[in-house]
């Protein structure tokens, strides 16, 4: 196909129509979804859609607001995997963390920046709490006391990996 001025103008027109349609869809979906970009290597995905208020279950991705610490500012949105729900038992052997005898990961002694990290204490997860994790060895999740169990009031909803 030979490109002439009319073809180029048509291609540009359809490209802008497509962009406009995507922008309208995102604007409309903001009522039900929050979009989050993962800036760490804790999960494989880069972009996640969080369905506001959707119930989460073990194995789901969950979006929640971070309470803040020396690593991340308060209100940051995190996406992790739900690995423990009310009634589950968190067990700690040295720095190895288990939920209902399923190995979750090792709580490192120091962050990548050299800051000391305290492991979560053994507990039974109560109503209104969940244990979150990531498959990454450097993931900052419920293995650490500072993160701990996530409270219902911090949960935004069920998250879905977009890409």
Automatic annotation (TrEMBL):
InterPro entries registered for this protein in UniProt: LexA/Signal_pep-like_sf (IPR036286), Peptidase_S26 (IPR019533)
GO molecular function: serine-type endopeptidase activity
Domain Peptidase S26: 13-160
A GO BP entry: signal peptide processing
TM spans (from-to): 12-34
Assigned keywords, A-Z: Membrane, Transmembrane, Transmembrane helix
Stored SUPFAM superfamilies: LexA/Signal peptidase (SSF51306)
Domain of life: Bacteria
Official protein name in the record: Peptidase S26 domain-containing protein
């Amino acid at each position: 196909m030979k490109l002439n001025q009319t073809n180029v103008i048509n291609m540009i027109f359809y490209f802008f129509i497509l962009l406009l349609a995507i922008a309208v869809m995102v604007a409309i979906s903001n009522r039900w979804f929050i979009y989050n970009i993962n800036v760490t290597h804790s999960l494989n995905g880069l972009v996640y859609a969080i369905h506001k208020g959707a119930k989460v279950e073990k194995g789901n991705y969950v979006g929640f607001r971070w309470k803040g610490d020396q690593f991340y500012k308060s209100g940051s949105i995190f996406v992790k995997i739900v690995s423990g729900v009310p009634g589950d038992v968190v067990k700690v052997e040295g720095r190895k963390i288990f939920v209902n005898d399923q190995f979750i990961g090792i709580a490192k002694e120091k962050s990548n920046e050299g800051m000391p990290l305290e492991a979560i204490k053994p507990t039974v997860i109560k109503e209104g709490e969940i244990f979150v994790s990531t498959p990454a060895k450097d993931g900052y999740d419920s293995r650490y006391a500072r993160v701990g169990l996530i409270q219902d009031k911090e949960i935004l909803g069920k998250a879905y990996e977009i890409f």
